[in-house]
Amino acid sequence: MFGHMRWKWLGATVAVALLAAGCAENAPQNAFDPAGDNAQSIQDLQVPVFIIAGIVGLIVFVVAGYAVWRFRDRGQPIPEQTHGKPALEIGLTILPAVILIGVAIPTVGTVLSLNKTSDTECVVNVTGQQWWWEFDYPVQEGCGGIAEPIVTSGQMVIPTETNVLIRGTSRDVIHSFWVPRLNGKRDMVPGRVQTLRMQAWDPGIYAGQCAEFCGLSHANMRMEVVALEPDDFEAWKANQHSAYESPTDELAAAGEATFQANCSRCHQVDGMTDADGQPIIARPDLQEWSGAAPNLTHLMSRNTFAGAAFDLLSPGECRDHVWDAPPEEFGPRYLEGVTPDCLNSVALRDWLRNAPAMKPMYTDPTKLGPTDGLYRGMPYLALSEDQIDELVAYLLERK
Ligand code: CUA
């Protein structure tokens, strides 16, 4: 009777294990599916280590299981007690030490090679904050030459087959940058600069997420690395450097005024001027605990928003057209940006209507005591539906 129950449990465990194994069909953050040199060197280390550990684990389970079964209590007298078996004990101390040394040597080698910075071909500064990532490209000869800084967020665009060095930090709490198919994690710590290499073989979008608990919306702090062929990367840079264009249609023009009245105290749009022709400079440091908010100058050149938590491309055909593009067609499709027909206007409008309802943030004005009145995240702005129409029209032109 009891034995029958045990088999049932075993059967259930095996069934659950098989079910769990089947869950990984669509796994964009699979750390066992490297897409670049750094991830490959981790893969070359972790696979043999997992195999060795698996074999050791299997042997331990089999031997322990055999001992439990073979010497189970059948009412026999207690065996004669001896001190032990010195030869076996010494052997079983030396063997794990040998295995650990065997694992340590390639591990140290891999860690050192992953920390190399001398072959860097492109530098991107990455800053984490509650709850989004900012990417800025400093002036450099790397990345094919950058004459004017580029500031973007949510999606880090890099050229393929290029050693990119992230210099990362944080503006508030500790975050962790993790794009599993390209490299391991690196904590981003306030007051420190940590480096992390990135390199992707093929064009495409590589998903990642913050991997260190950082408050309410930690789970909504996502990012993507977007890899483009060098030519397409040049086109992306040129677009990021393109000058501000005032709205072309009436609704968007109204949106510019609405934006200036409601959004521009936090969100920078480079090149936008006030009625006197003076540049409008955002001051998120007066509103936000982190002192920063995403730069929206070229919002529609990226295809996610709000910490990459939501799609700017409408789900289905529009999104799949870019995200599932074959590598050779990916670049041009990504560079199209978000067109009016493909805008995920439901999500964007919901966000403008009531951002804290879509993503948990510290935006209750009555609970900002600990931060001296500073928000963490985008507050509820009480915009009218007409204002939302205007803002969407205006933002759609921010390519
Ligand atoms: Cu940032 Cu978790």
Question: What does this protein look like?
Answer:
The protein is α+β, with helices and mostly antiparallel strands and 399 residues long. Helix content is 37%, strand content 15%. It contains 9 helices and 12 strands. It has helices at 2-21, 37-70, 86-114, 230-240, 250-262, 317-323, 327-335, 345-358, 385-396; strands spanning 122-129, 132-137, 150-153, 155-159, 164-170, 175-177, 186-188, 194-198, 204-209, 222-228, 304-305, 310-311. The strands form 4 sheets. It has a 5-stranded mixed β-sheet with strand order 3-2-1-5-8, with no helix packed on it. Strand 11 (304-305) and strand 12 (310-311) form a beta hairpin. Helix 5 crosses helix 9 (385-396) and helix 8 packs across helix 9 (385-396). The longest helix has 34 residues, at 37-70. The mean pLDDT is 94. The site of dinuclear copper ion has 9 residues, from loops.
Overview features:
399 residues; three-stranded mixed sheet; alpha+beta; 37% helix; binds dinuclear copper ion
Radius of gyration from the CA trace?
27 Å
Shape: elongated
Structural class computed from helices and strand pairing: alpha+beta
Main β sheet profile: 5 strands, mixed
Q: Tell me, rounded to a whole number, the average pLDDT.
A: 94
Q: Bound compounds, please?
A: dinuclear copper ion
User: Which spans have pLDDT < 50 for at least 5 consecutive residues?
Assistant: none
| Strand residues, percent | 5-15%
Q: What share of the residues lie within helices?
A: 25-40%
- Total helices: the number is 9
The ordered H/E elements are HHHEEEEEEEEEEHHEEHHHH
State the distance separating the first and last CA atoms: 70 Å
What is the strand arrangement across the widest sheet? 3-2-1-5-8
How many DSSP E strands?
Answer: 12
